[in-house]
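not sure who needs this but someone in the group chat was asking about GCN5 family acetyltransferase from Lysinibacillus xylanilyticus so here u go. i didnt clean anything up, its just raw.
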Amino acid sequence: MLIREAMGEDAEQVIAVIKNAEESNFMLFGPGERKLETEQFTKFIENINNNSHSALFIAEIEKNVVGYLIVQGNNMPSRVSHRAYIVVGIHSDFRGRKIGTALFSHLDDWAKEKGVHRLELTVMANNTAGVALYEKKGFEIEGTKRHSLYVDGEYIDEYFMAKLL
Protein backbone atom coordinates (compact mmCIF):
# COMPACT_ATOMS: atom_id res chain seq x y z
CA MET A 1 0.00 0.00 0.00
CA LEU A 2 1.18 3.48 -0.88
CA ILE A 3 -0.01 6.65 0.90
CA ARG A 4 0.61 9.87 -1.03
CA GLU A 5 -0.85 13.29 -1.76
CA ALA A 6 -3.45 13.29 -4.52
CA MET A 7 -2.77 14.99 -7.83
CA GLY A 8 -5.29 16.33 -10.32
CA GLU A 9 -5.09 13.17 -12.41
CA ASP A 10 -6.35 11.15 -9.40
CA ALA A 11 -9.72 12.95 -9.39
CA GLU A 12 -11.78 10.23 -11.09
CA GLN A 13 -10.52 7.45 -8.83
CA VAL A 14 -11.00 9.55 -5.69
CA ILE A 15 -14.55 10.43 -6.76
CA ALA A 16 -15.29 6.71 -7.20
CA VAL A 17 -14.12 6.00 -3.63
CA ILE A 18 -16.12 8.96 -2.27
CA LYS A 19 -19.27 7.68 -3.99
CA ASN A 20 -18.66 4.19 -2.64
CA ALA A 21 -18.05 5.53 0.89
CA GLU A 22 -21.28 7.54 0.74
CA GLU A 23 -23.20 4.28 0.19
CA SER A 24 -22.24 3.27 3.75
CA ASN A 25 -24.70 5.84 5.16
CA PHE A 26 -22.01 7.02 7.59
CA MET A 27 -20.98 10.05 5.52
CA LEU A 28 -22.46 13.56 5.54
CA PHE A 29 -23.90 12.98 2.06
CA GLY A 30 -25.95 9.90 1.24
CA PRO A 31 -25.82 7.91 -1.98
CA GLY A 32 -26.48 10.16 -4.98
CA GLU A 33 -27.11 13.31 -2.93
CA ARG A 34 -24.42 15.29 -4.69
CA LYS A 35 -22.78 15.34 -8.06
CA LEU A 36 -19.03 15.20 -8.18
CA GLU A 37 -17.64 16.26 -11.54
CA THR A 38 -14.08 15.33 -12.50
CA GLU A 39 -13.14 18.82 -13.68
CA GLN A 40 -14.50 20.50 -10.54
CA PHE A 41 -12.85 17.93 -8.25
CA THR A 42 -9.54 18.32 -10.08
CA LYS A 43 -9.66 22.04 -9.22
CA PHE A 44 -10.49 21.15 -5.61
CA ILE A 45 -7.37 18.97 -5.44
CA GLU A 46 -5.25 21.74 -6.97
CA ASN A 47 -6.61 24.27 -4.44
CA ILE A 48 -5.89 21.94 -1.54
CA ASN A 49 -2.37 21.36 -2.83
CA ASN A 50 -1.82 25.14 -2.86
CA ASN A 51 -2.75 25.48 0.84
CA SER A 52 0.17 24.58 3.09
CA HIS A 53 -2.19 23.52 5.91
CA SER A 54 -4.44 21.29 3.78
CA ALA A 55 -3.93 18.04 1.91
CA LEU A 56 -5.76 15.19 0.26
CA PHE A 57 -4.01 11.90 0.96
CA ILE A 58 -4.89 8.76 -0.95
CA ALA A 59 -4.20 5.12 -0.23
CA GLU A 60 -3.29 3.09 -3.30
CA ILE A 61 -3.08 -0.65 -3.77
CA GLU A 62 -1.69 -1.74 -7.14
CA LYS A 63 -2.23 1.80 -8.50
CA ASN A 64 -5.92 1.78 -7.52
CA VAL A 65 -7.19 4.38 -5.05
CA VAL A 66 -8.87 2.54 -2.17
CA GLY A 67 -9.12 5.28 0.46
CA TYR A 68 -8.74 9.01 1.02
CA LEU A 69 -8.22 11.46 3.85
CA ILE A 70 -8.91 15.16 3.36
CA VAL A 71 -7.39 17.52 5.91
CA GLN A 72 -8.38 21.17 5.67
CA GLY A 73 -6.63 23.81 7.70
CA ASN A 74 -6.05 27.53 7.62
CA ASN A 75 -2.62 28.80 6.64
CA MET A 76 -3.49 32.44 7.28
CA PRO A 77 -2.10 33.95 10.49
CA SER A 78 -5.03 33.65 12.87
CA ARG A 79 -6.22 32.17 16.12
CA VAL A 80 -7.30 28.97 14.35
CA SER A 81 -4.28 28.32 12.15
CA HIS A 82 -3.13 25.54 14.49
CA ARG A 83 -6.12 23.29 13.78
CA ALA A 84 -7.42 21.27 10.85
CA TYR A 85 -10.61 19.35 10.04
CA ILE A 86 -10.58 15.81 8.65
CA VAL A 87 -12.83 13.75 6.36
CA VAL A 88 -11.91 10.14 5.61
CA GLY A 89 -13.39 7.38 3.48
CA ILE A 90 -12.37 3.83 2.61
CA HIS A 91 -13.78 1.80 -0.29
CA SER A 92 -16.10 -0.91 1.08
CA ASP A 93 -14.06 -3.70 -0.54
CA PHE A 94 -10.98 -2.63 1.45
CA ARG A 95 -12.33 -1.87 4.94
CA GLY A 96 -10.76 -3.75 7.82
CA ARG A 97 -7.33 -3.83 6.16
CA LYS A 98 -5.67 -1.08 8.24
CA ILE A 99 -5.98 1.48 5.42
CA GLY A 100 -7.57 4.02 7.76
CA THR A 101 -4.80 3.39 10.30
CA ALA A 102 -2.16 4.01 7.62
CA LEU A 103 -3.86 7.22 6.45
CA PHE A 104 -4.05 8.57 10.01
CA SER A 105 -0.42 7.68 10.72
CA HIS A 106 0.59 9.58 7.58
CA LEU A 107 -1.62 12.48 8.71
CA ASP A 108 0.13 12.64 12.10
CA ASP A 109 3.55 12.95 10.48
CA TRP A 110 2.29 15.58 8.01
CA ALA A 111 0.52 17.61 10.73
CA LYS A 112 3.58 17.72 12.98
CA GLU A 113 5.72 18.84 10.04
CA LYS A 114 3.21 21.61 9.19
CA GLY A 115 2.79 22.81 12.77
CA VAL A 116 -0.83 21.68 13.05
CA HIS A 117 -1.51 21.12 16.75
CA ARG A 118 -5.19 20.10 16.75
CA LEU A 119 -7.00 17.66 14.45
CA GLU A 120 -10.81 17.60 14.43
CA LEU A 121 -13.54 15.45 12.91
CA THR A 122 -17.17 14.50 13.33
CA VAL A 123 -18.52 10.95 13.17
CA MET A 124 -22.00 9.47 13.43
CA ALA A 125 -22.40 7.98 16.89
CA ASN A 126 -23.61 4.69 15.37
CA ASN A 127 -20.44 4.30 13.26
CA THR A 128 -18.76 2.04 15.79
CA ALA A 129 -15.92 1.01 13.47
CA GLY A 130 -15.11 4.65 12.71
CA VAL A 131 -15.22 5.67 16.38
CA ALA A 132 -12.96 2.72 17.28
CA LEU A 133 -10.41 3.72 14.61
CA TYR A 134 -10.37 7.35 15.70
CA GLU A 135 -9.97 6.43 19.36
CA LYS A 136 -7.18 3.99 18.46
CA LYS A 137 -5.40 6.86 16.70
CA GLY A 138 -5.69 9.12 19.77
CA PHE A 139 -8.89 11.07 19.11
CA GLU A 140 -11.22 11.76 22.01
CA ILE A 141 -14.93 12.53 22.02
CA GLU A 142 -15.32 16.16 23.05
CA GLY A 143 -19.06 16.38 22.68
CA THR A 144 -22.24 15.03 21.15
CA LYS A 145 -24.25 16.91 18.56
CA ARG A 146 -27.69 15.49 19.34
CA HIS A 147 -29.95 14.73 16.37
CA SER A 148 -27.35 16.35 14.14
CA LEU A 149 -28.24 14.36 11.01
CA TYR A 150 -31.44 12.90 9.57
CA VAL A 151 -30.73 9.57 7.87
CA ASP A 152 -33.31 7.12 6.54
CA GLY A 153 -36.12 8.57 8.61
CA GLU A 154 -34.31 8.83 11.92
CA TYR A 155 -32.23 11.39 13.74
CA ILE A 156 -28.60 10.45 14.32
CA ASP A 157 -26.24 11.91 16.91
CA GLU A 158 -22.75 12.95 15.86
CA TYR A 159 -19.65 12.91 18.00
CA PHE A 160 -17.23 15.81 17.76
CA MET A 161 -13.78 14.29 18.19
CA ALA A 162 -10.33 15.86 18.37
CA LYS A 163 -6.71 14.99 18.93
CA LEU A 164 -3.91 17.21 20.17
CA LEU A 165 -0.43 16.62 18.77
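also The chain has a mean pLDDT of 93. if thats useful
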